[in-house]
Fold:
Amino acid sequence: MKKVLLVNGSSHEQGCTYTALKEIQDSLVDAGFESDLLWLKKETMPDCIACGYCDKHEGCVYKDVVDDVGRSLDDYAGIVIGSPVYYSGPSARIQGFMDRLCYAWGDKLDGMFGASVVSCRRGGNSASFERLNQYFLMNNMYIVGSSYWNMIHGSRAEDAKLDAEGLQTMRNLALNIAYFLRMQNAAEKAGVLRPKREEPIMTNFMDGKEAEEEPTEEQ
Structure:
């Protein structure tokens, strides 16, 4: 059975975000599933520059970890992304990673599950959690939830390890992921196929002629 990819978007390799993801990873092991935990490190993550390279070539113009993950997505059944909270939003690193992964490798994400995990000292978690889930909602992915929003609290890993409810939420998320993967595997064995997608339809709200005109106050 395919593995689960856990992505740590924190600047700290083994901080609060790692603590949450590690709880998920350990619980997945107990449920019989393998996973890889990827830390995006401290280097600056280039954001998408809308260059159009991935429309004509395989992958992103930046040949970095995004393309490494994109080329390995066939090995995974789903992805869990984790981030600390900055001003009620996820880290720029995880957003840059996901912006480019979804845009350049979105076809491979189709049919996979997605889940997000957020960590903060006190507040801003729910806004960050909602932001990260948008990546899954636009790529024909299945979001796996838990017994509460997937959040953990603390300023340091030692604090996060004291958040009993947060850690339990991570374990329950892992159980739900394992159940989803078993259902998916059973469906394939029973001949229940994934939905066949229609060709994408792109609807613009102005045609080219109107877009070129100088807008008036009435417009």
